[in-house]
Design goal:
Blueprint lengths: L2 E5 L2 H8 L5 E5 L8 E4 L9 E8 L3 E8 L8 E5 L2 E2 L14 H8 L3 E2 L31 E11 L5 H6 L13 H12 L3 H4 L2 E9 L3
Parallel strand pairs: 1-6
Antiparallel strand pairs: 2-10, 3-4, 4-5, 6-9, 7-8, 9-10
C-alpha cells in the first residue's frame, strides 16, 4: 500500500468531511496524443498505467500507456489543505514547527475548512494561512483510501458521479448536479477548460476514520 499527497480546496474538504464527496477528477498530464480516441482497458496495469487507443495518422491503430499519479485501489491519499499554525510561528517554516512539540504546546492547528481547534488549549491566536501545497504530512488530518480508478473524457460525467463530486444540486431536474460541477470545474481550471473536454483521472475514495 502506497501513500501520496493530494490537494483539495476548503469547500471540497468540507464536502469530504460531510460525506458528500467521494470522487475527484484530475486532468491527465501529460495529455494523451491527439489521435487517441478511447481507453483500452477500464483497469490500471500493475505498474499504475492505463492504455489509450486510437488511429495514429502515420502508423495506423496504435496505443499509448500513461501512468496514473494517484495510485491504485487500496492505496491511500493524504489531503493537503489550507492551514495555519499560531501567530507566534508565522516566521517558521513547516519543517521548523517540530510537529509533536508544536501540537502539544499550542493546542492544535487551524484549517480553513474548519472547525477551529479548542480555544481552551490555545496559547496563541491564529497565524497566517499557509498554502495547501506547503502542508507537511504530519499536519494532514484527512486520509482517503482509493476504491476505484478509471479514465474518461471530462464531459462524460453523469449526474450520479457529479453528485459524488460534492457539489450542491441546482434543482430536481436531470443534470441538477452536472451543471454546478461544470461551473466549479471552470472556476478551478479556467474558463475554457470544460469546452476543451480533457481526459481526466476519475478517482473514487472513502474517508479513513482514525
Amino acid at each position: 500500500m502506497a501513500e501520496r499527497p493530494i490537494l483539495f480546496s476548503a469547500p471540497m474538504v468540507r464536502a469530504i468531511l460531510d460525506g458528500r464527496k467521494t470522487q475527484t477528477r484530475r486532468v491527465v498530464k501529460p495529455a494523451p496524443p491527439s489521435w487517441v480516441s478511447q481507453v483500452g482497458f477500464s483497469a490500471l496495469t500493475p505498474d499504475r498505467h492505463i492504455e489509450f487507443r486510437g488511429h495514429h495518422p502515420e502508423h495506423g491503430p496504435s496505443c499509448k500507456f500513461l501512468p496514473c499519479p494517484y495510485g491504485t485501489p487500496g492505496d491511500r491519499l493524504w489531503v493537503r489543505e489550507t492551514w495555519a499554525a499560531g501567530a507566534c510561528a508565522d516566521e517558521l517554516s513547516p519543517s521548523e514547527l517540530h510537529a509533536p512539540t508544536w501540537l502539544r504546546a499550542n493546542g492544535g492547528l487551524w484549517y480553513q475548512a474548519g472547525p477551529d481547534p479548542d480555544r481552551a488549549g490555545l496559547v496563541s491566536r491564529r497565524g497566517r494561512w499557509r498554502p495547501s501545497i506547503h502542508m507537511p504530512r504530519w499536519a494532514s488530518r484527512i486520509t482517503l483510501k482509493i476504491t476505484a480508478v478509471r479514465c474518461e473524457r471530462l464531459q462524460e460525467i453523469d449526474d450520479h458521479d457529479a453528485m459524488r463530486e460534492g457539489v450542491s444540486p441546482t434543482g430536481d431536474t436531470d443534470g441538477a448536479y452536472v451543471a454546478p460541477f461544470k461551473e466549479l470545474w471552470g472556476k478551478i481550471n479556467g474558463a475554457d477548460s470544460w469546452e476543451n473536454n480533457p481526459w481526466v483521472w476519475v478517482v473514487s475514495f472513502k474517508l479513513v476514520t482514525p
